[in-house]
């Protein structure tokens, strides 16, 4: 897949670019099916505990379903395929590792918003910026709560700036920008990828439509990201590209 030099430069200078209609339809359908399967699992867990909120998950409203990539062959094939390896090479360089992955789901008419934040704000200590690939599994619009990104130049930040974040009461979200810039909304069809740096501020609105809104977030780093003490990994560090060559699929488990 060809990623233009203009897109590469926009990533370096503004922290993002859009790739429209790049995920094959059969992979989109497979990722949707796995999403539904895992929603059922999370619902059962919350029902068994008699709770409506579990971490960032809100029952029948919003879900963050993490780290199923090594359990599901469907997800692994996408995470470690040629498409994602191409995006990693264009943004991170000759070496890249899977850092984190999750579904982000907003239910019809009740899906909640997600405030301005940097993905790096959730790591909690300084680290080299990593890559976030926000993969649309449904057609995205303002009405269904698509993601919006804030270009670096919009608030005068550099590609390496890491802001302090505060926990928002009620949602458990981390918020790092309180300004009034609306950002750039990703009005993209299903099968598109919003590519942005972990330093790029982004947010999403509530889903006000009658249909579910699903995306899959795949994140990669140019090097393993360690915990604050440097004694172990903060997330994952599974190679996808080594010296410019795509690695094979990791063992399932």
Features of the shown structure:
alpha+beta, Jelly Rolls, 253 residues, eight-stranded antiparallel beta sheet
Word description of this protein:
The strands form four sheets. Strands 1, 4, 5, 7, 12, 14, 15 and 16 form an eight-stranded antiparallel sheet that branches. This protein has a four-stranded antiparallel sheet with strand order 6-13-8-11, with no helix packed on it. A two-stranded antiparallel ribbon has the order 2-3. The protein is α+β, with helices and mostly antiparallel strands and 253 residues long. It contains four helices and 16 strands. It has a single domain (5-154, 167-246), classed as Jelly Rolls (Sandwich), CATH 2.60.120. The longest helix is centred in the N-terminal third of the chain and has 25 residues, at 25-49.
Short description:
With 253 residues, the chain is α+β, with helices and mostly antiparallel strands.
């Amino acid at each position: 897949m060809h990623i233009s030099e203009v897109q590469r430069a926009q990533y370096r200078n503004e922290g993002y670019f859009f790739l429209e209609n790049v995920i094959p339809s059969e992979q989109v359908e497979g990722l949707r099916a796995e999403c539904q399967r895992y929603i059922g699992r999370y619902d059962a867990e919350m029902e068994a505990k008699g709770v409506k909120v579990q971490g960032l998950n809100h029952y029948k409203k919003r879900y963050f379903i993490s780290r199923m990539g090594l359990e599901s062959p469907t997800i692994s094939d996408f995470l470690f395929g040629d498409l994602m390896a191409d995006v990693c090479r264009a943004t991170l360089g000759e070496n890249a590792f899977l850092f984190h992955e999750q579904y982000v789901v907003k239910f019809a008419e009740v899906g909640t918003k997600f405030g301005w934040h940097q993905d790096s704000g959730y790591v909690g200590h300084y680290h080299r910026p990593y890559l976030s690939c926000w993969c649309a599994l449904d057609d995205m619009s303002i009405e269904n709560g698509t993601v919006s990104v804030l270009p670096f130049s919009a608030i005068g930040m550099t590609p390496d700036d890491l802001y302090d974040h505060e926990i928002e009461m009620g949602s458990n979200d981390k918020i790092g920008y309180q300004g009034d810039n609306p950002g750039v909304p990703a009005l993209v069809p299903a099968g598109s990828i919003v590519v942005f740096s972990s330093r790029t501020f982004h947010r999403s609105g509530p889903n006000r439509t009658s249909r579910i809104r699903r995306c899959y977030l795949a994140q990669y780093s140019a090097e393993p990201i360690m915990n604050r003490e440097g004694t172990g990994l903060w997330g994952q560090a599974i190679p996808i590209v080594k010296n410019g060559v795509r690695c094979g699929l990791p063992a399932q488990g």
